[in-house]
What does this fold into?
Amino acid sequence: MPAAADISGERFGRLVAIEPTHIGGRRLWRCACDCGGESLVDVGKLRIGNTKSCGCHKASVLGISTTKHGMHGTRTYRIWKAMRSRCNNPNVTQYKDWGGRGITVCERWGRFENFLADMGEAPPDRSLDRIDVDGNYEPSNCRWATRLEQAHNTRRTKAKE
It folds into this structure.
């Protein structure tokens, strides 16, 4: 088997190959990205141009922050993810009752950090509630509500008023 080529120092888009490493029997290259990040990449993906950054380029194109907020996995983060999912993903069971009805999430809340700044952390005994049940998820229409408050604020109960 021929020796693998040394690509140390070669540039591939925003990545510069630093050193080879082996993980799970695969030979990967540790690469430094222009943004300061690092990634492990298969040399084939570098050579054919499939991987050109650590992921920062895709994030910047899509407007996604690569900033770490330290809240991944918290109850507040899960609530934020679920809100976005039921409004944006037609494959989610609840989509028909939110996104399918035209309920959207404001652009500002596309970033978790903004949602957290506007709403604060979810109190343990409350969940995210839209004040106007037909309105969108946005700071002026959302609150942390108790189960009782939510039970009184549904399409069914509002239709009876």
